[in-house]
Amino acid sequence: MEEGLPDAQIFMVHIVNRCFKDIIHFFTTGIAPKEYSIQQNKELVVRAVDFSVIAGYLYKMGNDEIF
User: Fold this and answer.
1) Is the dihedral of CA 4, 1, 17, 41 positive or negative?
2) Nearest to 54 by CA among 16, 32, 22, 28
3) What is the pLDDT of residues 4-46, one digit of tens each?
4) Less Cβ crowding at N or C end of the chain, within 10 Å?
5) Is 44:23 a contact under the CB 8 Å cutoff?
């Protein structure tokens, strides 16, 4: 039994595009992909604001402030 979020309830599940792997990489390592330009780095940071990595999974904060 995984105990990452023992009391959490999932209200909706989305299977996301593989482009979000860059956001996961950014959260786990703290650096953007090496091939990114300065502008792409800034865009990655802006996109990543609504996301969190919890127990190895990427979650997006909804408008109702629920992951």
Assistant:
1) positive
2) 28
3) 666 666 666 665 676 688 898 898 899 988 999 999 999 999 9
4) N
5) yes
- Single-letter amino acid, residue 38: I
Please give the distance of CA 10 from its chain centroid, rounded to a whole number: 16
Tokens of 14: 């989305």
Integer angstrom CA distances of residue 20 from 4, 35, 39, 40? 21, 16, 17, 14
Helices (H) and strands (E) in the chain, counts: 2, 2
Q: What is the pTM assigned to this prediction?
A: 0.62
Identify the three-state secondary structure at position 23.
helix
